[in-house]
Design goal:
globular; 19 strands; 8-stranded mixed sheet; alpha/beta; single chain
Length: about 350
């Protein structure tokens, strides 16, 4: 093959244990490819497709990549210099970017952050009521890009009325209803606000990674590539006012009711508070082998091991079998031959191979 090709720099190959993914971060799409093809495409230089010895395989791959605009042809090697490599560094001036609160959170918290610029605020409420609307009125005065509502109990009878009232608040991006068994649609768009409906309880939803929590865009990729996409820049104020890293954390860094603004800001800017946010998925057991690691939003609490971080709670995706827990032939890590502990990851290759072959046998 004499033609010269470059990879679209916004189409990024990411290697997993069994397979790789091309992240199309602008069009918010992705494509599975074999790890062997990842080795070919993982370059900012002219792509050497001659690494693939099978002619038919090579031609099929090039045709597919051209069709999806993942690669493009250049006339000569000098032309490569016209195209810059994608800068994967994370540039966020603010240490606090995301906040999770409850609808009855002490108003003092919003006085603490009134001079901060936040990307988003998530609000948890048992129902849509006066407490929530009072809070939204307060939030409307802050420097925030968007607001996400998580309503623990869906009320069909009041839905039409409350939907319009919610849309009056300009910052709201999405409203997520739980315990919603009467709604046939899973998503509705009304006045540029997404209304999402879940049959499960919020308590279940907040602890589990699901495919609807996969996020693929430029901002999320850069964050996940450099730091922890859930914990970085996040603060959670629980129902009692305790300051935590995230929804599933038990450790408290203090209480907003007992702190001054300066003490609060010093707390969330401290190295101890920011430790989880600075964890990279490549330094986390299992996650480092997962092809979805730069698009997932993982709220599990990491634990520091001897050499790497790890999770005591298992993810809903097993990257060693390439199966989600709702898919046929899924089994957990231990049963598939993968043991995770503070000392590291030990894989029984024969056992894993047998289960993988059974999981994917036709």
């Amino acid at each position: 093959m004499n033609k010269l090709f470059l990879r679209n720099q916004l189409c990024i190959p990411v290697k997993g244990y069994n397979r790789a993914i091309i992240y199309d971060i602008i069009r918010k799409d992705y494509f599975f490819i074999p790890n062997a093809h990842y080795a070919v495409l993982d370059t900012n230089d002219v792509i050497n497709f001659n690494k693939i010895t099978d002619r038919e395989e090579k031609e099929e791959l090039v045709d597919f990549l051209l069709k999806e605009e993942i690669i493009f042809e250049i006339t000569d090697r000098e032309e490569k210099n016209r195209f810059k490599s994608f800068n994967r560094n994370l540039e966020q001036p603010n240490l606090l970017t995301n906040a999770i609160v409850h609808s009855d959170t002490d108003p003092v918290f919003f006085d603490f952050i009134k001079d901060e610029y936040l990307l988003n605020v998530s609000v948890i409420a048992p129902r849509i009521d006066d407490h929530l609307f009072a809070l939204l009125a307060k939030i409307d005065t802050l420097e925030i890009d968007s607001v996400y509502l998580y309503i623990e109990n869906f009320d069909q009878e009041s839905y039409e009325t409350t939907r319009q009232l919610i849309c009056n608040h300009r910052l709201i991006f999405s409203v997520n209803f739980f315990n919603s068994t009467s709604q046939t649609e899973t998503t509705q768009l009304h006045q540029n606000v997404y209304f999402n409906f879940f049959e499960e309880e919020f308590a279940t939803y907040k602890t589990k990674l699901t495919t609807d929590k996969l996020s693929l865009n430029n901002e999320h990729f850069l964050e996940a590539y450099n730091v922890h996409s859930y914990y970085y820049g996040k603060v959670y104020i629980d129902r009692e006012g305790n300051i935590k890293n995230g929804l599933n954390n038990t450790y408290s860094f203090g209480n907003v009711k007992l702190l001054t603004k300066d003490l609060f800001l010093n707390t969330i800017h401290s190295d101890k508070f920011r430790e989880l946010g600075n964890i990279n998925k490549n330094n986390t057991l299992v996650c480092s082998d997962c092809e979805f690691r730069y698009m997932c939003v993982d709220s599990r609490v990491p634990v520091k091991g001897d050499k790497k971080w790890y999770h005591q709670a298992e993810c809903a995706y097993n990257p060693y079998l390439s199966k989600w827990d709702y898919e046929e032939n899924y089994i957990n890590l231990k049963d598939s031959g993968v043991a995770i502990s503070a000392t590291g990851c030990v894989i029984d290759q024969q056992k894993l191979s047998n289960h993988f072959n059974m999981a994917w046998s036709v």
